[in-house]
Amino acid sequence: MALVASLADWDSPSTSTQGARRYEQLANAVQVVRHFLSPRDVTSSRSTSKPVETPEITAAFQLVSKHGRGQASYNDFMDSVESRFHLIQRDVQRYVDRLDPAAEEINPQIAQIMAEMLERLALWQRAWGLPLRAFQDTKLISQFTSSFHQLLHSSLPPIFPRYLLDFLTASLASLPEHLIDPPHQPHLFNTVPINYHKVPPPSPHLSRLGVFPRYSGTLSRVAYQEIEKIATEEAAKGWDARRLTRARQRVGDGVANWLSGMFEGNDVAQVALRPMFSRFDYYLCKCFFDIRTDELFDIIVDFPESMAALEDLKECLFKVDQRLELVNKLNAANLKRLLHPGAETKSVLDIYISTIRCLRILDPPGVLLHKVAEPIRRHLRDRPDTIRCIVAALVEGEELQDENETAGLIPQSNDETVENFTDPKWEPEPVDAAPEFRSGKTSDIVSTLVSIYETREVIIKELQVLLATRLLAVRDYDAVREIRTIELLKLRFGENALHVCDVMVKDMADSKRIDHHVQGDAKSVVHPLVISRMFWPSIPSSSLHLTPKLQQVQQQYEAAFHHFKPDKHLRFMQHIGTAHISLELEDRVVEVEATPLQAAIAELFEEKDTWKVGGLVERLEVDQGNVRNALAWWAGKGVVKEREGTWVLLERAEDDGGAVHAFVEEGPVIESVDETKAEQVRVYWNYIKGALTNLGPLPLERIQGMLGYVDDYDQTVEELGVFMHAAKREGMVEQRGDGSWVLVTDGG
């Protein structure tokens, strides 16, 4: 049966008249199809008319398709397209020539020229592809569109991507004002908000010509450049307010709507864009993160006024998670701008305190602070005056005193290398924490400062020195402020640690009571502070020999005191204290608060009006430097003047013509802990000298280890470091670049 059916459908031999006619009709139809599909030159005036599909043409396409010649005709058409594509290349070059490839800035006519070129290319595509509709086969039209796009983009000049970038950039910059600079919204955004506004693309032919699939990188580049620009503009507005939210609003209303407009009407593309907006938010946070981390040192210096910038940085840090980059940038800034000899210790300490506060905002567990703080702490340990500055901050800083009221006791030592796994609140350390990091350590600022040193004893001793100095400067026995300070410090260091300070305060109260009784027996201008010498820090002695008037008032007071307490005697420290002096000169009265040495010099000028420095040194039995210093102080008050090596009393005021008198402020009356400890270590100098002589350059830790074998040696490595720096100033040792110490042979 199959054979019968095949024979029934068998055509007549081609040699028959009917067969020849059919082949002739097919050949004519193929010629009609080829002519109708032939790519036209749209630039020619003869080819501008749109091809009209007549019934004859429709019949020819049907006949060709019926006999299976449609694909062959399409292939012939595509061969013609390739052979005539030079017409499109020539047309494109005509538009490219209107643009200046050497121009560095965007051509203001780029939008118009590119729009015209895209319109022209769309015309070529439409003119060559429209006749394919006669096949009534959408598959062939899709094949032509794909092939045309391939030919087009392979033939475009290499500079086309740059022109496309400028074209898209100009279109983004030309958005309406309400999208570029939208009205402020008060609430915060956690990501880029999408408020859809219909934004037409710069050219409707970008999608039709297949530009976006091949130049998606250019489209993204324009968007990311705008995001970076927005981040830079908003961050530059300052640290006084949150800037990230405003930047997100601008990206959402501007960049996001612009990108959505490129794919208007393409629902599939619109859905695919949603993850892109999340990447926009990430990139915006990355730009903000880079800007704020570059400024982080200045943000820390300006804290707390820069709190808003820290909040933005904290959010960006959570989003981008580049913690190591933040640490590296801040460490580099600290090394360049802070950790060098030119920075004062007080400034280093103040910035360290601000760093603690700022990094706790960024990272409450403290991992970032641990990585950033260690170089600062090491630098502070190497400075001889760090202890003094820490104590001054504890006593005089109001903010740290407020912390003392709320925090607990500071531990005796800084050794917390062993974790307490029995703690029910124990948690594992963060994954990026260093091995020595412990999140359970006391985190208040006072404890952090004290923990710079191995034990708190050096801080306590310096506290005693500072409080003693302040008590010696108190007038009228009014030590209320000092008592409050001591009570606050007891909350941190404990009662026993500050027992010596209690004795000093008690001496102040006892002195007030004694003075009240003595003044009742014999009125005196002397109001001494009677101290229990064993409980006060070391006070250096002085060879000052006071003048008769000053000696007389002291002797009178001492006699009255001995009458009140027969078993005790007073021994005045002649160089400590202040005296209220009123000098009656011919044309004026000078009232000042002077030191005992300055008061003694003023009394000597009562004997005669001129003195040489040598004569004053002989009478007062002090060194020449102190005498010159006191004379310069009086010269600054206009009381004396130096003339040819002789100091003259000025009974009448003179105009000194703006002369400047050098006055060197005297040092503290009580030796600091550093100076005291350095003197204690000096006893072991021979051991240190022998070690450096026999073994050569040694690091500080090695010297400390060797001194540990010496009987009665109980100094810490910090105290040894203070002594070595003092020995360096005296020319006895030198410190090499690697930190090791070497003996100076000439220094002995």
From TrEMBL:
List the PROSITE patterns hit by this protein, alphabetically: CULLIN_2 (PS50069)
Highest taxon of source: Eukaryota
Q: Which residues form the signal peptide?
A: none
Q: Name one GO biological process term.
A: ubiquitin-dependent protein catabolic process
Name of this chain's protein? Uncharacterized protein
**Cellular component GO terms held in the UniProt record:** anaphase-promoting complex
Which sequence ranges form a coiled-coil region, renumbered to this chain? none
Membership in a protein family: Belongs to the cullin family.
Q: Which organism is it from?
A: Kwoniella shandongensis
Q: Which GO terms describe its molecular function?
A: ubiquitin protein ligase binding
**InterPro entries of this UniProt entry?**
ANAPC2 (IPR044554), ANAPC2_C (IPR014786), Cullin-like_AB (IPR059120), Cullin_homology (IPR016158), Cullin_homology_sf (IPR036317), TPR_ANAPC2 (IPR057975), WH-like_DNA-bd_sf (IPR036388), WH_DNA-bd_sf (IPR036390)
What Pfam families has UniProt attached to this entry? ANAPC2, Cullin_AB, TPR_ANAPC2
